[in-house]
Each structure stands twice: as structure tokens, then as C-alpha cells.
């Protein structure tokens, strides 16, 4: 699974990416600091079930802190998008191609309204962050519609003559965009297209379908960044203007500062917490003390920086992912080396047992016999959907 961090230049995309991954990619207050995609690994929090066994876990692919599992998530921070990107303006074509594999987008906007459409610094409040959200969606729609429309009439006529299913035709044309068949079917149901005669579709029909495809397959969340520079009323107003999208006020600068200070041992801070503690005041310079005082005020107003909650709302709410724990011993919840709950996997809600087996290893999926619930010890069929936080053993033919 991959989440794309998107938005116009100079709104704090790379700062938010750095805060979530601590990779220290380039950041600067001018447009197009990011000219190639940055990739890294962040993490989302989920309660670890090891407490049910009364024994500590031994994580392999993630860490566990105070009973909370930090499950890895792939992030990609792409070059800034400007109006006209779908027609090649700015770094448009490259930007859009870098998003092909993303399952969903966190769009970072400048809540303070202090950057214009191309990321140049302007007077605070002179730009509308809601407009940023609208034109980014329009650019994404134009991008998908252009892919759909390439030599469309000729291929659509062949589909009609051969009696090919429209779902198969669209899947072929959208190869590489990570749009699953279920999303294609959902988009077709939600738009008034003539499914039997695609050759009759107009460019407007394709644009409507492209919008529906994005809604069904690439959910978005708005990170209203630089919230520390505005009032809560301004953040609430943006949320009211975007009723169809979750809006999470964020301060990426604050989060990045806190994570770096925590890594340096200056503060005690867990990402997503509403506060932090100063580990050793004597180690701080006057400038550091002043900066941390300012951060405490920001967290007191906003209840946190919003950065970690934004990622988690994207993963758990918008993408509807759950965490499951495959094991080899359903009684002790261990693998072949005796490690307790070694791996935590993110999978879509209602994923069947056999699909989880494939995630663990292709051979387990192909030779699947049954799964066993680690709590109830019941046998689960291949198509049985797993619950969130499930502990499951996969039984396969040798």
C-alpha cells in the first residue's frame, strides 16, 4: 500500500513527509524544492494484541511501544502540482506519473492562504485553500480522462463489435493506475454512461467517468497545513467548504521539530500525542527553550500537530485498512522461531483468509487449506473475511 503526499509547491508537503518518515529530504520556502519523488516509510498506530497473552511481543516488521503497534506504510512525496499540470505545465506529467501506484492521496494545502497557485509567497489570507483542493481534483480528473481518451473511438467501436465487456475494456486502458475492478464497476454504476455503446461517449462522459473512478479508487484527505498561523475558525470554515472530504488541521513544522528533538533526547514525545515533556532543561539553549515553549502553546490550542492523525485517518478511514497478525502457532501466537506476533500486516477491511495467505507467501495462498482463528481456534474457510486485529494461522499443503 502506498499513500501519495500531493499539493501545489511550497505548502509543506516535504516537511510533512519528513516528519512522518524522518528522511530529511530537501525543504525550502520556494517553489519546486522537490523535483523528483521522495519515497519513505511512515507508520500508523494500532493496539497490539500481545497483552491478551500476558507476554511481550517480538515484532519483526514493526515496533511495539507501550502496547501500541506501529505498522509500516509506504509514502511518496511528489513534485508540486500547478494548474495546467495535466497539460504538461510545471512538472505536471512527471508529477502525475509518479502517482500511478498510490492508493490514496493526502493533499497538503496552505491553510494560511500565503502561497499563490504556483507556490510563490504572497500576503497571508489572499489565497483560498478550498480552491487548491478543487483545482487539484480537476487536474487529476483531466489526467485520467486523457488516459481514457487515447484513440478511444477506434477501440470502443471494436469493443461493441466484439461484444467485449466494458469493465474489461476499461481495465485494459487503465492498466498501471492501480484501479481495481470493483472500483471500475462502482464508477460505471454511478455515472449515466451507455455501457453498451462506449463509442458514443463524449469527452464530457469520459470526464464524468474519470471523476467517478478517482472517487472510487483514490480517496483523498486534506491536511490543512500551517494551522499554527491561523485561528480555529479558519480551519473550521475550510472544513465547511469541503463537506465531501475529511479536513485535518496540521502543523508539519511543529511535528518535524518535535520528532527531531525526541530523536536527540531533548524531549519525550510520541507522535500523535497532544503534549510532550522536556527531558533535561539544562541541555537546552535559550533559543531551544523558547522554541519549545512556542510548541507547547500550539499543541495546547490544537490538541496536537495533526500530522500523525492525518495519516491514520487516511489509512484506516479513507482506505479502510485493518491490521492482522499471521502466526504459525495459533495457541501461543508465535512463528517457527518462537517469536510472539512477529508481523503486523495492513490489509483492506473484509479481506478473506486466503488473500492474507497470499500476502504472507505465494505458496501459502496457492496451497491454502484453511485458516485458524487464534482466539477462538475455529477453522476459517478461504473466503472468510478477517476482523481487525485478527490473529490467524494459515494451514497449507506441503
Please sum up the structure shown.
This protein has 398 residues and is of the alpha/beta class.
Structure description:
By secondary structure, this protein is of the alpha/beta class. It folds into two domains: 1-37 and 78-266 and 304-319, P-loop containing nucleotide triphosphate hydrolases (Rossmann fold), CATH 3.40.50; 320-396, Roll (Ubiquitin-like (UB roll)), CATH 3.10.20. 36% of the residues lie in helices and 19% in strands. The strands form three sheets. Strands 1, 2, 3, 4, 5, 6 and 7 form a seven-stranded mixed sheet that branches. α3 packs across α7 (203-217). The chain is flat.
Secondary-structure element sequence? Answer: EHEEEHEHHHHHEHEHEEHHEEHHEEE
Tell me the major beta sheet.
7 strands, mixed
- Fraction in beta strands: 15-25%
Overall pLDDT confidence: 91
CATH topology of the largest domain: Rossmann fold
Count of helical regions = 13
pLDDT < 50 stretches: 25-34
List the helices and strands and how they pair.
Elements: E1 2-6, H1 13-21, E2 38-47, E3 63-65, E4 68-77, H2 92-97, E5 104-110, H3 129-149, H4 152-162, H5 166-173, H6 181-190, H7 203-217, E6 220-225, H8 232-241, E7 247-249, H9 252-263, E8 267-268, E9 277-278, H10 286-302, H11 307-318, E10 321-327, E11 345-348, H12 353-360, H13 362-366, E12 368-373, E13 379-380, E14 390-396
Parallel strand pairs: 1-4, 1-5, 5-6, 6-7, 10-14
Antiparallel strand pairs: 2-4, 3-4, 8-9, 10-11, 12-13, 12-14
Helix pairs in contact: 1-9, 3-7, 5-6, 6-7
Amino acid at each position: 500500500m502506498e499513500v501519495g503526499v500531493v499539493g501545489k509547491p511550497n505548502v509543506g508537503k516535504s516537511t510533512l513527509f519528513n516528519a512522518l518518515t524522518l528522511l530529511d529530504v530537501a525543504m525550502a520556502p520556494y517553489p519546486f524544492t522537490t523535483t523528483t519523488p521522495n519515497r519513505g516509510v511512515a507508520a500508523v498506530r494500532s493496539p497490539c494484541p500481545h497483552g491478551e497473552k500476558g507476554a511481550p511481543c517480538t515484532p519483526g516488521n514493526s515496533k511495539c511501544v507501550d502496547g501500541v503497534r506501529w505498522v509500516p506504510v509506504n509514502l511518496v512525496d511528489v513534485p508540486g502540482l500547478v494548474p495546467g499540470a495535466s497539460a504538461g505545465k510545471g512538472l505536471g506529467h512527471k508529477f502525475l506519473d509518479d502517482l500511478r501506484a498510490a492508493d490514496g492521496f493526502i493533499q497538503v494545502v496552505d491553510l494560511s492562504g500565503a502561497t499563490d497557485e504556483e507556490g510563490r509567497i504572497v500576503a497571508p489570507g489572499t489565497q483560498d485553500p478550498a480552491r487548491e483542493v478543487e483545482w487539484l481534483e480537476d487536474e487529476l480528473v483531466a489526467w485520467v480522462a486523457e488516459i481514457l481518451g487515447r484513440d478511444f473511438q477506434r477501440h470502443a467501436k471494436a469493443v461493441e463489435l466484439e461484444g467485449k465487456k466494458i469493465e474489461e475494456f476499461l481495465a485494459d486502458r487503465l492498466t498501471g493506475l492501480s484501479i481495481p475492478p470493483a472500483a471500475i464497476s462502482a464508477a460505471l454504476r454511478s455515472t449515466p454512461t451507455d455501457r453498451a455503446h462506449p463509442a458514443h461517449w463524449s469527452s464530457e462522459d469520459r470526464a464524468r467517468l474519470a471523476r467517478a473512478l478517482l472517487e472510487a479508487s483514490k480517496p483523498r484527505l486534506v491536511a490543512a497545513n500551517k494551522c499554527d498561523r491561523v485561528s480555529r475558525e479558519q480551519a473550521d470554515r475550510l472544513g465547511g467548504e469541503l463537506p465531501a472530504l475529511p479536513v485535518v488541521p496540521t502543523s508539519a513544522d511543529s511535528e518535524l521539530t518535535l520528532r527531531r528533538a525526541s530523536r536527540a533526547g531533548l524531549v519525550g514525545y510520541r507522535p500523535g500525542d497532544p503534549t510532550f515533556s522536556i527531558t533535561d532543561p539544562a541541555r537546552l539553549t535559550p533559543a531551544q527553550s523558547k522554541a519549545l515553549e512556542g510548541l507547547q502553546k500550539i499543541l495546547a490550542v490544537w490538541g496536537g500537530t495533526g500530522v500523525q492523525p492525518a495519516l491514520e485517518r487516511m489509512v484506516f478511514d479513507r482506505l479502510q485498512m485493518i491490521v492482522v497478525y499471521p502466526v504459525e502457532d495459533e495457541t501461543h501466537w508465535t512463528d517457527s522461531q518462537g517469536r510472539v506476533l512477529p508481523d503486523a500486516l495492513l490489509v483492506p477491511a473484509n479481506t478473506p483468509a486466503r488473500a492474507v495467505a497470499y500476502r504472507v507467501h505465494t505458496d501459502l495462498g496457492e496451497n491454502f487449506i484453511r485458516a485458524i482463528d487464534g482466539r477462538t481456534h475455529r477453522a476459517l474457510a478461504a473466503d472468510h473475511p478477517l476482523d481487525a486485529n485478527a490473529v490467524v494461522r494459515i494451514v497449507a499443503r506441503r
